[in-house]
Amino acid sequence: MSGIYIHIPFCKRKCHYCNFYALASLKYRDEFVPALIQEIELRKEYLTDRKINTIYFGGGTPSMLSTKEVNSILNKIKESFEVNPEAEITLEANPDDLSPDYLKKLKNETPVNRLSIGIQSFFDDDLTYLNRVHNGANAKKAIENAKREGFNNMTIDLIYGIPTLTNEKWEKNLETFFSFEIPHLSSYALTIEPKTALQVLIDLKKIKNTSEDETVSHFEILLEKTRQHGFVHYEISNFALPGFYSKHNSTYWLGGHYLGVGPSAHSYNGLSRQWNVKNMKQYIESKSVENIVLEKELLTEEQRYNEYVMTSLRTSWGCDIEHIRNGFGEKFVRHFMKEIQKPIQAGKMIVNENVFKLTDYGKLFADGIASDLFL
Ligand code: SF4
């Protein structure tokens, strides 16, 4: 079973922390969906397993598509692949797009069955710091509207580590989330990515920088509160009630295959990783796969091992030494076993029946621990 990711690169305005390929301009709006449909046709042979279990509209802001456009993309996918009738079909949405009318059409006229709403915070000052389009009231209204229309399989994003976000406000954000009885949460620490507006504004001292201590404290609150409410911390930034894990994102984390369409989208079929061009004009004008796919990389054994370590360590399934032995051989096992001793002694990792997992303390150092295990 494979997944399909569709990148919709339009946004009403650019959030200050954003480093995704997203355009705050509708210049190519009309040509975009036909180009996307053409790409699905051109690249349908990429996946070795053409049975599709998950489809994910990400961005950018996919809720800027009309339901007619959502259906024309899905119809092309159904024509080109064997889509499981029970497939998880997720659409990312910004709160200001989720009017009762749009949600009604999405629910009744499209097969979208999972909504991912970019809330980030329920407080206006945090949203202003991030330069989001919506405010706290819009955020709550969007969730209420979605629930009223029957979207029960829902997730929201919340960001912590924002300088305007105190511990008390962060707890309040989480309490608001729990009060809506939403079964999934994606929660990320604010990171200052190079070349973003946030980095420029911080460098110019126009806004406050993030604080590592506050971010750590928010992360600890997040772990405690989600656990109290019965959520499983199944990936470093993802929490779900049993039965509501994101099937699409789990495909990425468990090494599954996926085709990514749209500018900047990534694809993986077990043998190669491919990156689409990050240029809308070039994307629209592409008439061949070669013009769409800017880079291809055949993965070496070391790269595949590093990816396995990196992704598995971030999940609750952990890193299985037998998987390393069977997939990569004894050389990799020896290296892993030598390097893993230090984080175990430091209380950052635990091992149970050959499966190595991060402790809560170790989760604070996930990327560093993984890179020390790389070959
Ligand atoms: S809505 Fe998402 S993709 Fe668009 S600018 Fe904001 S963070 Fe970036």
Would you write up a description of this structure?
The protein is an alpha/beta fold. It folds into 2 domains: 2-252, TIM Barrel, CATH 3.20.20.70; 301-373, Arc Repressor Mutant, subunit A (Orthogonal Bundle), CATH 1.10.10.920. It has helices at residues 29-42, 67-80, 100-109, 124-130, 136-148, 167-179, 197-203, 212-228, 247-253, 280-285, 289-292, 301-313, 321-328, 330-345, 366-373, and strands spanning 2-8, 51-59, 82-93, 114-120, 154-160, 184-189, 232-235, 238-240, 257-261, 266-268, 272-276, 293-298, 319-320, 349-352, 355-358. The strands form 3 sheets. Strands 7-8-6-5-4-3-2-1-9 form a 9-stranded mixed sheet, sandwiched between helices. A 3-stranded antiparallel sheet has the order 10-11-12. Helix 1 (29-42) links the parallel strand 1 (2-8) and strand 2 (51-59). The structure holds iron/sulfur cluster. Iron/sulfur cluster is lined by residues 11, 14-15, 18, 20, 22, 59-61, 94, 118.
The secondary structure category is alpha/beta
Helicity range: 40-55%
- Residue stretches low in confidence (pLDDT < 50, at least 5 long) are none
Amino-to-carboxy terminus distance:
29 Å
Beta strand %: 15-25%
Question: What average pLDDT do the residues reach?
Answer: 96
Shape: globular
Radius of gyration: 21 Å
How many separate structural domains?
2
Architecture of the largest domain, CATH level 2? Alpha-Beta Barrel
Strand order of the biggest β-sheet: 7-8-6-5-4-3-2-1-9
Report the sheet with the most strands, covering strand number, pairing sense and barrel closure: 9 strands, mixed
- CATH third-level topology of the largest domain: TIM Barrel
CATH superfamily of the largest domain: Aldolase class I
CATH class membership of the largest domain: Alpha Beta
Number of strands: 15
Name the bound molecules.
iron/sulfur cluster
